[in-house]
Amino acid sequence: MSDLDALFEAAKAVRENAYAPYSNFLVGAALRAPDGTVFIGCNVENASYPVSVCAEGGAVSAMIAAGYREIAEAVVIGDAALCTPCGMCRQRLKEFGTDDLVVHVADLDGIRRSFTMDELLPAAFELEYTSK
Ligand SMILES: [Zn+2]
């Protein structure tokens, strides 16, 4: 199994754990650090909708908690044919993405499209921060 296949399978598996009783829209995300370590997250909704957390947000939090700071590759999987990261998550991924981060968007059958960070978030807001 290739690294990308493994990343897809990790995202697909964690999607099954999503807590989405309000939207019934299950999303999984898997991030691969440059050393190959994978972090996963799923969406977690809340009765107070703004409290909800996206799958990418959960995966980024897990990565940071483990002491990692860079994302080399990501897979986001949802029910829709093109479950691209929301605007907030594009900014989240940009914060930690390597210069050549690729975000793959998948449905249950496989990866449908792949995007560079510049395609997802052109003219991104960013500040130079040296302790990455
Ligand atoms: Zn999001």
Structure description:
By secondary structure, the protein is of the alpha+beta class. The chain is built from four helices and five strands. It has helices at residues 3-15, 55-65, 87-96, 117-120; strands at 28-32, 38-42, 71-77, 97-107, 110-116. Strand 3, helix 3 (87-96) and strand 4 (97-107) form a beta-alpha-beta unit. The longest helix is centred in the N-terminal third of the chain and has 13 residues, at 3-15. It is globular, with a radius of gyration of 14 Å. The mean pLDDT is 95. The structure holds zinc ion. Residues 54, 56, 85-86, 88-89 line the site of zinc ion. The site of zinc ion (ZN) has 6 residues, from helix 3.
Strand line-up in the sheet with most strands: 2-1-3-4-5
- CA-to-CA gap between the ends? 31 Å
Strand content: 25-35%
Query: Which structural class should the secondary elements be placed in?
Result: alpha+beta
Series of H and E elements: HEEHEHEEH
Indicate the percent of residues in helices: 25-40%
Q: What is the number of beta strands?
A: 5
